[in-house]
Amino acid sequence: MASVGVSEGLLLEQSWVPVRLGGVQLLAKSCFADTAYRLLLSDLQCVWEEKMDAAAIDGRAQALNRRLTAPVSAFFSHLCSVACPRLAGGGEGEFEESADVAEFSLQRSQGRLDIRLKSELAGMPFYWEFRCTPAPVKVVCSHLVQPLLAVSRVLQRQVGELGALLTRKDAEIQEYKESGAVLSRARLKTEVFEEQSYRESFITQVLPEVCSAQDQLGFDADLQELYAAVTAQRSSHKRKSSDSQAPGDHFPKKKSTLDEAPNSSTAPGAELAAALDQTQSSSAGPEPGPGSAGPEGPHGEQTAPLNNVQSDRPSSRPRKKKAVGLFR
User: Fold this and answer.
1) Rg of the chain on CA atoms, in Å
2) Which of 11, 185, 201, 293 could be 31's S-S partner, Cβ–Cβ 3.0 to 4.6 Å?
3) What is the pLDDT of residue 261?
4) pLDDT at residue 99 above 90?
């Protein structure tokens, strides 16, 4: 059976969400395709992963549910309906009234993380197991370390821009005060923003409170959105870099551009020169003068375009002056 798995890019653009499975708080990242899925779980001490295609899903479903006979699409559809809401951050008691209720249990053994699922399919019990193994260092860096470092840089720049905005706002308020403006409500008065003192007070007062929080796996909606935006931008940049550095694509383009550059530059120049010659000859034709005596063929008109232009320049200036005089 041919099957297509979940690509690395699709999983990378998914955000980490806090989940609670079997009474344990974890960070989860999952991506479910047609008949395949990839799953990442972490407790900030280890990262586990599992990836399954259609053949593997069919084999495990048949082994765990010998009393059920169904195509792999039916097994996978039911698995998505009961597992995806929980892996998307839903709480354990959030789906008690739903028809597709699943019980999750968690077990660790020999470095592996097993999540067992029990639900009901067509009136029969349905069992499934997510058998996650420790993720390679490359996967951890790609999905956790590098994106979080990028998010921290983005937030740092955002804080800097907000600090600069506050400084400009203080200067604006000071100008209003010097102009005689008075604050009507005293409770709206604020102190002048000083970045250094703000950082010191934040480190001494706010930072201990944040670090002592019990929930260290907090990925709120704003942070999830920022994480998804950062990973999407990084994926787009990688695709552009790989396309521009594709073998056999870079150097031939440069060669063809150099070869075609002279031809492409001379062709428009020739057309422009011909258009100028025709314009000058048509404008100089009706005027009597020594240069226009005697009918000449088309070759005679094109052999000396520069002389025609120079001889027409003095006569064109008086005509412009006469035209200006008409509007007076």
Assistant:
1) 37
2) 11
3) 40
4) no
Q: Is 23 left (phi over 0), alpha (psi -120 to 50) or beta?
A: left
- Please report, rounded to a whole number, the percentage of residues in the chain having pLDDT higher than 90: 41
Residue 317 has a pLDDT of: 54
φ and ψ of 68, to 5 deg: -105, 135
| pLDDT tens-digit map of 129-181 | 999 999 999 999 999 999 999 999 999 999 999 999 999 999 999 999 999 99
Whether 68 has a pLDDT exceeding 80, the answer reads yes
Confidence check: pLDDT of 4 > 70 = no
Residue 9: the pLDDT is 82
Cα dihedral 204, 208, 210, 211 sign: positive
Cβ atoms within 10 Å of 286's Cβ, excluding its own: 7
- Most confident of the ranges 25-29, 260-264, 300-304: 25-29
DSSP state of 136: P
Strand, coil or helix: 222: helix
Q: Are 61 and 128 in contact (CB under 8 A)?
A: yes
Q: Amino acid identity of 271?
A: E
Angle at 107 between CA 135 and CA 123, to 5 degrees: 110
The conformational region for residue 44 under phi > 0 = left, psi -120 to 50 = alpha, else beta, is left
- What is the per-residue pLDDT for 100? 57
- DSSP string across 40-97: EEE-SS-EEEEEE-HHHHHHHHHHH-TT----HHHHHHHHHHHHHHHHTT--TTTTTT
The H or E element that residue 130 is part of is: strand 124-134
- What b/e string do you get for 69-78 counting C-beta neighbours within 10 Å, with b at 16 or more? ebebeebbeb
CB-CB contact of 223 with 151 (8 Å) = yes
Q: Is the pLDDT of residue 216 over 70?
A: no
Is the Cβ–Cβ distance between 11 and 143 less than 8 Å? yes
- Sheet containing strand 112-121, edge to edge, reads 17-21, 24-32, 37-42, 47-52, 124-134, 112-121, 103-109
